[in-house]
Amino acid sequence: MSVLSKNYTLNNGVEIPKLGLGTWFIDDADAADAVRAAVATGYRHIDTAQAYGNERGVGEGVRTCGVPREQLFVVSKVAAEHKTYESAAKSIDETLEKMGLDYLVMMIIHSPQPWVEVNQSENRYVEGNRVAWKALEDEYEAGKLKVIGGAVASTIFNR
Q1: Which of 7, 42, 137, 141 might form a disulfide with 15, Cβ 3.0–4.6 angstroms?
Q2: Are 51 and 79 within 8 A, CB to CB?
Q3: Backbone angles phi, psi at 66, to 5 degrees
Q4: Could you give the CA distance from residue 137 to residue 148 in angstroms, rounded to a whole number?
Q5: Which residues have a Cβ under 8 Å from the Cβ of 72 and sit 6 or more positions away?
């Protein structure tokens, strides 16, 4: 059995493929082709982020790869700078619009600190992360997300 067909089961029963295509450093103009090539190879887990600047292209690749949408585990991440409920919720809707998708399988908070402060500040933005998490919960309850989480010290916590 290929690693591309192996999954982990998350806390809420959703399965995530063990191996995914990471799209960091793939230009938006090249992202659709990269996604289509990866899916043709057998990948079913596609990862992007608001900070990568390629969500439009990744979404195009997902929509045009020839594999039914429900067979693809598509992930994006709320940018580290979104530390208010309003900005986090708006960013999730903008991601869906850019990608041309009705839902994402997973959305996580990309970093507990804004990027300009990572490892430079003691401020962990506890309240900002709480309200960003609330925005994720509300989008989850609305059916726009199937799994939510936060990346902390390379560990993904999910619902």
Answers
A1: 7
A2: yes
A3: 90, 0
A4: 7
A5: 39, 44, 45, 46, 62, 65, 105
Q: Could you tell me the residue ranges of all domains in the chain?
A: 3-158
Element (H, E) at 73: strand 73-78
Angle, CA 110 vertex, CA 19 and CA 152 arms, to 5°: 80
- Which ranges constitute the DSSP H helices of 2-70? 28-41, 55-64
CATH C-level class of 3-158: alpha beta
What is the structure's pLDDT at 1?
79
Please tell me the predicted confidence (pLDDT) of residue 16: 96
Residues identified as active-site? 52
Give residue 159's pLDDT: 55
Q: Give pLDDT, residue 114.
A: 87
Q: Please, what are the averages of pLDDT over each run of 10 residues along the chain (159 residues)?
A: 91 95 98 98 98 98 98 97 97 98 96 84 90 97 94 49
Q: Confirm if 76 and 99 have CB atoms less than 8 A apart.
A: yes
Cα gap 94→86, rounded to integer Å: 12
Backbone angles phi, psi at 22, to 5 degrees: -90, 135
> Which tokens belong to 149?
């989480």
